[in-house]
Design a protein that fits this description.
mainly alpha, 6 helices, about 75% helix, Transmembrane protein 60, membrane
């Protein structure tokens, strides 16, 4: 895909999603909340599919040439996408539950009350995973680079340069 097509596609899907949310909240669009979130699920599916293809492309080889950090980054990316999908589903369930309570329609969710705290658990998990990935990409690599820089200029003491004594 061309380099300008990815951001353009992302921009189109996000704008469509925001427009659908505005129309749904204002009451103009009487769709289900799961249909409103469809553009975001399409983006998540494309991201998950491309990440899985990249991961399995590497594992087809007999020897994996990627280091542990690369595998950890890919695993964190898959976890973030899955947590985001769970959070979107929970938000849709919560919004549909509220919508059916206010309109008086029969509730199809078997619980009497969904608490917002439970809805936010996948969102907080996603944020914690993103913070872990950010820490790993920014802080951890800079610390390793600083230590390797310091390791290049070690002062050699005279006791370290002497040859071992033979007995």
């Amino acid at each position: 895909m061309l380099s300008f097509a990815k951001p353009l596609l992302l921009w189109i899907f996000v704008c469509t999603f925001l427009l659908l949310i505005i129309l749904r909240v204002s009451g103009t669009l009487p769709w289900n909340w799961f249909l409103v979130f469809t553009p975001m699920w399409i983006l998540d599916f494309v991201a998950l599919l491309s990440l899985m293809v990249c991961m399995f492309h590497r594992s087809v080889r007999l020897r994996c040439v990627c280091d542990l950090g690369t595998r950890l980054d890919r695993f964190l990316s898959v976890c973030v996408i899955l947590c985001k999908l769970i959070a979107q589903t929970a938000i849709c369930l919560f919004a549909e539950h509220l919508n059916r309570q206010t309109t008086g329609e029969p509730l199809w969710i078997p619980v009497h009350r969904i608490r917002l705290v439970y809805i936010m658990i996948p969102c907080w998990t996603t944020l914690l995973l993103l913070l872990g990935s950010l820490y790993r990409n920014l802080v951890d690599r800079n610390i390793r680079r600083a230590w390797s820089f310091c390791g290049q200029y070690q002062i050699i003491s005279p006791t370290m340069t002497s040859a071992p004594r033979s007995s």
